[in-house]
Amino acid sequence: MPEPYLRIRNVSKRFGDFTALRDVNLDIGKGEFVCFLGPSGCGKTTLLRAIAGLDIQSEGMIEQAGRDISALPPSERDFGIVFQSYALFPNLTVADNVGYGLVGKGMPRADIRKKVAGLLAQVNLPDQGAKYPAKLSGGQQQRVALARALATEPGLLLLDEPLSALDAKVRIQLRGQLKDLQRDLGITTIMVTHDQEEALGLADRIVVMSQGRVEQVGSPVEIYTSPASVFVADFIGAMNFVPARVAGPGMIEIGSARFAAETAHINGDGRALAAIRPEDIKVQGVAPGDANALEVTIDAEEFCGSYMRATVIDAALGEARLKADLSMNLVRGMALTKGSRLPVALPPERLRVYPPLS
Amino acid sequence: MATAADPAAPGAVASATEDNRPIRPRASRDEIAQRGVIGVLVLYLVLALVLPIGMVFSKALQQYAFTPDQITIAFGRGGAFEAPRSLQSWIDETGYVVNDGLRASERTRVQIVRIIPRPARAGVEAYRVTDASSAGGQLLLGQEFSAPGQTIEVPAADLGRIQVRPQMSYGLGNFGYYFSQKSLSDSIRNSFVIAAIVVAINVPLAFGFAYALTRTRIRHKEWFRLISTVPILVPSLLPAIGLVYLFGNQGILTPLLFGASIYGPIGIVMASVFFTFPHAVIIMTIALGGADQRLYEAAEVLGASKRRTFWTVTLPGARYGLISAAFVVFTLVITDFGVPKVIGGDYNMLALDIYKQVIGQQNFQIGAVVSIVLLIPAVIAFTVDRVISRAQTAQFSSKAVPYQPDEDVRRDRWMLGHCIAVSVFILGILFMCQFAALAKFWPYNLTLGFQHYQFNKMDGGGWAAYWNSIRLAFFAATIGAVLVFIGAYLVEKGRGFVAGRIGLQFLAMMPMAIPGMVLGLAYIFFFNDPSNPFNFLYGTMAILVINTIVHLYTVSHITATTALKQLDGEFEAVSMSLKQPFLRTMTRVSAPCCLPAIGEMWMYYFVNAMTTVSAVVFLYSPSTNLASVAVLNMDDAGDIAPAAAMAMMIFYTNAAVRILYGLFSRNVLGSLQAWRAR
């Protein structure tokens, strides 16, 4: 394994009595695009600011490119940063903003001008250099901020919720541009976001955080398909949680119905929490003899455009109510409606079992 | 890539406990520079504010008393000295009243020749006077103090050269004395009564005016707003002088008083209403201006009457403004000394007492006691104001829909009448002053001319005083605005050094709680002390500038911090990531963005430096006489018309600077601020 570009070891941060980060450990490889994802107050921004040196951690070590930067002020670290608010200097032109970090380094004026023009072209804003930021749209401003952060050719790009202040359409458009740019430059990038869609779409790896802790680190697919904890499972995507009991090795019981599922990691008195995503509940081509199959009744339906999210119940399931996504084709074809009975299956490889919530 | 190792966080790397150590952030060179600048500013405020104010407290506790029982005197007759006798026994014998029964102060001296009557000294050839005290210094021969136990021998003819000094001790004696003196403690009551009356008149008056400006559809609001700020441009002495001409012994409207005298409470109240009015209007305009239209729509939908809406929506919404205005007016009145000086007659007020004690009687200790008494209401008012302004900021939501006054002809007619009445009062006094300044010999010869503008023919400093004031105002404004802005920038946007920044913030808020008189007196104590290395500043223009900058520091600081708070909080973070020094970001970004606020600070300093009397009255020297002080001194000398003329000069100067600033900000600042346009 190559030496990681950024090594974070045992980093904790306290503000008075409040602990914002608890013993965070993380490696980030060169050229990786990593997203810190979590609800507000989970510590993702605190971790980003610790990496930047803006709010230095209370304890723990941060190493960048083999250099211990733990105690260094931001000005002695190597990063560029983009904030949600853009933080463009309003009284400077776009070109002056982008060139702000290039001045005072002995770079000839003409070279600065050339470099700024190149950067603006790179973020698809050629010929906008003479304008003031207030004349630009939010998406354009954010691209200027990005160009400014990249101007000094930092080894690390930090993005603090860069897309959150933008309209939904612009956000998606900019997301694509950001990803392309990052791939072209090959710059190691950390982005803080609370938007899971953004994280799933952009990141090479996602760091899910909660209450100052790292909950799970993994690729978007890993995080989505194998959430390591109830928190991750709940935070990302939609998820059914129903109380269950371990009825034996590889066997759980929901209500009086038994299902096959991985149970080796469940200890204690056998109480557990079963989880399955609505789209993972199999509804087409279910035969009565299939694994984990049962017949259920549609108790409520919610129209979601391309699919129907149905709440299904059955006497065998006891109190448990499951949400299942039914494609509109199926709904029309089978004339499904409230009260309809239909066979479904909870595929064992999709049915996850967690320890019960305390 | 790293794989799952920690069961709590799959995918995360394993914890390595040897790295678990506390981090001490290293300061960048930039941060060290910031600390240096903060240190310099803190040092400045300590030297120019904290230490002088501390001297006021220590002076107030210094009590002086004669101790004649610790002085002995022996007569030399026929070549031999007789047995020494204590001075106290002589006093008991002759019934001499030490210092005419007045309280001894630092500078009181008693001569032995006055205690021992001439017949008792017949035939004495020489004296041996002994300082029997353990502290010494009781006797003064020429410039020399006696040492403890020292005996001074003088020939008979030189006894007159020996003076007895009172001994200093620390205690609350000055306070006891102060409160036992009826004339002095009366002034406390007088000050509070007058201030309360002015509040009672001014708050409704200003509320009505602000209401008219914000909640009606009367026309020419801008003009009324402008007129209401006129009193800020003049020294508080001006309305007093104007009232003398209107209602004084030879005033044109004197009969309206039906025999009552303008010299005294009536005059003080009227002049105080004049000079505190704009402060109350500004506060109340802000309080009433932030109303939310939706509240009024809700009240209307719920069927509330106009009166009920006023009492349940309008007044509660403005309550912070009302309280704040009341306290500000109260403090302004109680700490002002210009008005009672000119028009108070023999009606004593607190701030005037300081002036009388210090300038009149040279009794610094009692002056310090009065200062501390004066500090109490000022500090209370300051505290209330801070608490309220915090509550008020929380009250306004950024989502409020601006209030649109509805059509109401009757209301507007009344409010217009109110505005006109107030404007007539303000402009009338101003006009009266100008007229009196031009009239040849009031009230007998009303031919107009400029003879009263020949200030060089009067006491008070002449035209030089006027130019000194302009210099003071310019330097205080320019240096002050820069200094305060840098301080506010570091408090708001600095990195690290939290203790230093909190300290600077605290020191920056202090001057508002210190009345000008007290600060001026504090400067005498501190800078006039020959042992102070900064003593050389005393009597120079520099000390006036230093004093004025400190005196007006707080309001400018608040203006600057408010403007800085509106800037994006991440400018500094971005600059650090781009490895740019804070100085560049401050001068290239933050200061240009705050240019309107910096201009406001400059104006505030300039206008107030032109009009202030209270602090500088103790600090000017013959070579640094000031226009505002000249007004005071010419009035004191009976040259009232020239005093009015000089006061009007201050007004015209401030008005001109304001207009020039307005043009400047529209043209020059306007082009510099092009980036604001969307």
UniProtKB/TrEMBL annotation, chain A:
Q: Name one Pfam family in it.
A: ABC_tran
Q: GO CC: one term?
A: ATP-binding cassette (ABC) transporter complex
SMART domains from the xrefs? AAA
Keyword set for this entry?
ATP-binding, Cell inner membrane, Cell membrane, Membrane, Nucleotide-binding, Translocase, Transport
An example Gene Ontology molecular-function term: transmembrane transporter activity
What sequence ranges are listed for the domain ABC transporter? 6-236
Q: Which GO terms describe its biological process?
A: quaternary ammonium group transport
Q: Report the InterPro entries cross-referenced here.
A: AAA+_ATPase, ABC_SmlMolc_Importer, ABC_transporter-like_ATP-bd, ABC_transporter-like_CS, AminoethylPonate_ABC_PhnT2, Mo/tungstate-bd_C_term_dom, P-loop_NTPase, Transp-assoc_OB_typ2
Recorded superkingdom: Bacteria
NCBIfam families membership: PhnT2 (TIGR03265)
- The protein's name is Iron(III) transport system ATP-binding protein
What is the organism of origin for this protein?
Rubrimonas cliftonensis
UniProtKB/TrEMBL annotation, chain B:
Skewed-composition ranges (Basic and acidic residues): 18-27
Report if keyword Repeat is assigned: no
Q: What is its main location?
A: membrane
Disordered: annotated span: 1-27
- Compositional bias per record (Low complexity), positions renumbered to this chain: 1-16
Gene3D superfamilies linked to this entry: MetI-like (1.10.3720.10)
**InterPro entries per record:** AminoethylPonate_ABC_perm-1 (IPR017664), MetI-like (IPR000515), MetI-like_sf (IPR035906)
Q: Where in the cell is it found?
A: Cell membrane
Q: Name one GO biological process term.
A: transmembrane transport
Note the superkingdom of the native organism.
Bacteria
* Family named by the database record: Belongs to the binding-protein-dependent transport system permease family.
Q: What is this protein called?
A: Iron(III) transport system permease protein
Q: Which source organism?
A: Rubrimonas cliftonensis
